Known about the structure:
3 helices, alpha+beta, single chain, globular, 3-stranded antiparallel sheet
Amino acid sequence: MIHDEQMMCDLCCTPLNPKVDAFGQRYVHPAWVGKEWDHDAVPVPRDPGRLRGLCDFCSSDHPETAFLTRKAIVEITRGVTHLYTEPWNACERCAVHIRNRSVHLLMDRVVAVLPGTVNRPERRARRASLKPIYMKFFQAEPEEVGL
């Protein structure tokens, strides 16, 4: 059974992702390119007063709005199921591409600003890894709900 409680890390105040695998459900830090977490996630219920705001697309520290999808998004990666049901935060530059339903321009922006994507093969690999989840995001009919 998947619990849909929104959690954050008690140590770094970063929103956590639910992860379901053979051992059940747990909460983990987001898998950001170029970011190595120096601690294991310590899940606690989200506290808006402490929560660190981040763009869920490019990892910018300044989200300006949020998008809620009409449908849940399920991603299965190497036998691990990720369920995305909460609003997706977006900085203003990413939000423009989401409002215009421009998945390829959104991927171009994200690949350009994420660390670790400096050469052409890395950029292609990053785009290939982002495309399935971004396509699911747009197919899930996102609506802007603000922060």
